[in-house]
Design goal:
This protein has 4 helices and 7 strands, in the order H-E-E-E-E-E-H-E-E-H-H. The protein is of the alpha+beta class. It has one domain: PH-domain like, CATH 2.30.29.
Length: 154
Amino acid sequence: MQAPELIGLLLLVALVLTIAAIAVRRSLLTRSGGIDICWRTAVTPDGRGWIFGQGKFDDRGLVLYRSFSPLPLPSRVLERDQLEIDGRRSPQGAEPDLLPVGAVILRCTDRTRALELALSEQVLTGLRSWLESVPPQQRGLRGDSNERGGLREL
């Protein structure tokens, strides 16, 4: 085999392995309760900067994974007690073409950083329920679950 053929074969194998890793990770996330979600931290009016991915709720936060990354590590973790929903809006400008059909955009704050989440109405309902509930191990530490100030009426 010539050197260019060998390099081409190695690149093809690397591409196939990367695609397989992405597909396996997405499948595992979906089977374990993962949700489709898009997010962006650069909140600009031009509609750019959206990251497509999957999310998974756990007791400490909403763990976000990029769709097109073969790495098993999360891209971002939005901590449950630091996440505040500031409002919602419909996709505007080029966003309806970029985001999934029927997506709702939430303006949020994670600690002091602004971000937007794009998700379906069903996922929004799950997110609100998750934010309003308090994990059993934290009930004694926080007191009444109504003390949480992170969710405003949408």
